[in-house]
Amino acid sequence: MGEHGVASAAVDARGLVTAWSAGARRVLGYEHGEVVGRRAADLLADALPASARATLAEPADWQGSVHARHRDGHGVELELAAHPLLDAAGEPQWFLTATVPEPAVRLRRWALDQLPVPIALFDQDGLAVSANSAMEGVMGRSQQDLLGRRVGVSVDGRRRLPGFEGLDEAVRSVLRTGEPMPFEAWLHAPGEAREHAWLVSLSPLKDGSGAVRGMCLAAIDSTEQFLARRRLSMLNESGDRIGSTLDVTRTAEELAEVCADHLADFVIVDLLDLLDLLDLLDLLDSVRAGEEATVSPGADPLVFRRTAQRSVLEGCPEAVIPVGSRHTYAAGSPPDRALTTGRAVLYEPDDLTGRLWAGSPERARSIEIHGIHSMMAVPLRARGITLGLSILSRHRTAEPFGEDDLLLAEELAARAAVCVDNARRYTRERAIALELQRSLLPHRAPRQAAVEVASRYQPASTRAGIGGDWFDVIPLSGARVGLVVGDVVGHGVQASATMGRLRTAVRTLADVDLAPDELLTQLDDIVLRLDSERTTDEPEGAESPGEIGATCLYAVYDPVSRRCSMARAGHPPPALIAPDGEAAFLDLPIGPPLGVGGLPFETAEFEVPEGSVFAFYTDGLVQAPDRDLDDGLTRLRQALCGTDRPLEETCDQVLRSLLTDRPVDDVALLLARTRALDDDRVATWDVPADPAFVGQARKLACDQLAAWRLEEVSFVTELVVSELVTNAIRYGGSPIQLRLIRETTLICEVSDSSSTAPHMRRARAFDEGGRGLLLVAQLTQRWGSRHTRTGKTIWAEQALPGEGGDA
């Protein structure tokens, strides 16, 4: 109550003063007789507020601030309350009370009313009793329309306003518990094109005893903060969603999905056709030529391939170019400018830009039909290379793109471009490694009679890239065959190159007929040297690619004796399928992986029934993230079991049983079915250490050739037998043995107990000897020697008539 107390008066339906209190005389200075009968409006210095005038039309209580004129002429601010009363005739009479607010009260009221933060007060029932002008502006309604209503209810009180869902429940909770509560609401402010986010604070109002008497609602426009948080959240989400695979097409699709979910109504991603990594042949050609997949912005014409598109509408009806199709953009169009400048372009498709953008009647028609009103063209650039373009459009979202949206789109495009470029580089490196890998693996089994073989190589499909798995089938002397399978540690071109070097080394070592354990020992030394050379060649401070390591299994099978010798260096054990179809893993001594050095390897030797099948494989076949090694070995054994099944069919069955569509590691599989040379294809004679037996040896050989109907090769065979038997008698030691083997070639072998290997030399003009081995080398396909457990064997091979050469 002010210093003058409470003033009261009565006004009839015609607006005339009918009663005047002493308090009114003290406030305005008018005596009773000067006021009664006068128009009440004459006492006002300003017009009544709009809310008060509205109250006159349909009588209701009103409370507010008015400016009256004192009798001496100065203005007086009054806090006025009007209450309608009906007389006997039903006419409204108005009972007015007014006070002069104290200075502090006025300041508080002015502060509340002029505060830019929307504020409203509610009573214990949750009904509005006061609202400042900022709240009126936000709600687009006068205070009179807001008073007496619950928060978020329409003027007619029949429906909830959009954006206030859940706020009424929060108000009741605050009034019931007396605890403050935050709330976030969305609302279209009058005259604003976009929705605003409001951070609403609900605070209880308590009396001196702590009882809740009402509530204060204050709202802060948090739109910019909300949008900033949303942009940050979108960027964080894009980091998880974009680039989940090293696949160019999938990365473009992920960019389109993220933008359509959060930023645009229609998104297309076009990659320059030069980067079509699906054309592997073109890619390899460019790589071999040392070219980088680059493009000069502004080159004419720029051909794009529609890689991805996404819309909020089902089926992307806005698109006029199907995914996978090639197309171009008109010169001078916004997309062309974006590519030329390397900067994103924001524009509205008006008549001019619409024509430039469309470039075709179909595009122009789509823009018009779907009401596209805002667009962005964002180039995809990474590491200085232009990769493509992303177009973002809005037609269902009323708000056009802004500068913040442009910056966000550029950031998303930059991240996606790096992922696309990584995928491009990965695809190129993987293609090179795969091409290198396949070129180093045998394309067809070499000609030999010891085993029937079938093989498979399955590259990994993960980001790790191609590995260093390999297998080989190596024909050896004496109709034997070497079977090898290995796995180089690591992936990529480096692993493939190392694999090629090791495969060459194995072939070289096998050619000198080393035993399996000796071959692995030599191969282990080679791996150690390769690792040492690579470490030495690295520049100081360069990051080391890691030590070279590998596993390997080497086996030698002899179809004459039906015996097999094997040794392994850290490699999984091979399986053997018996002729009855039962499969089991061989219990072989396990040696250390190649590259460890200083540890021995051990050879196991055993007899193999004819028709048995060896299964050699790398660990990628039996190991996977979703299963352990024992489970993989069990499944492999089950897949191998069976009789009379073609090896090719068995290979397919094994891969179907153990591999997924996207194996995580390389897989090499080699199956070898053993054969045996019957006795009628092998002839063996013991040779006494007597030079006189050389002639008899020639006769025995010729008789055997006649039995085999190979008289055409008798002359060369006599010469070879004579030379080899003579050398064994002269320089070797007993026991001496002569053996002829007929398979795809005619093999002549002479064994003795001496470990000294022969060598060719060039005889001088008058030398009586030294020409024998030279003649053998000239008349046969190949010759050589191998060490055995009891000495050595000298051998020579001749082509048979009709088998690839003349006798």
Ordered list of secondary-structure elements with their pairings:
Blueprint: E1 6-11, E2 17-20, H1 22-28, H2 32-35, H3 50-57, E3 62-69, E4 75-86, E5 92-99, H4 103-114, E6 119-123, E7 128-131, H5 133-139, H6 143-146, H7 167-177, E8 181-188, E9 195-206, E10 212-221, H8 223-241, H9 248-262, E11 266-272, H10 280-288, E12 304-311, E13 326-327, H11 334-341, E14 345-347, H12 351-358, H13 361-370, E15 374-382, E16 385-394, H14 403-440, E17 451-458, E18 467-475, E19 481-491, H15 493-511, H16 516-537, E20 550-558, E21 563-569, E22 575-577, E23 583-585, E24 590-591, E25 604-607, E26 613-617, H17 629-640, H18 647-658, E27 667-674, E28 682-687, H19 693-707, H20 714-731, E29 736-742, E30 745-752, H21 772-779, E31 782-787, E32 792-799
Parallel strand pairs: 21-24
Antiparallel strand pairs: 1-2, 1-5, 3-4, 4-5, 6-7, 6-10, 8-9, 9-10, 11-12, 11-16, 12-13, 14-15, 15-16, 17-27, 18-19, 19-20, 20-21, 21-25, 22-23, 22-26, 26-27, 28-29, 29-30, 30-32, 31-32
Helix pairs in contact: 8-9, 8-14, 9-14, 12-13, 14-15, 15-16, 17-18, 19-20, 20-21
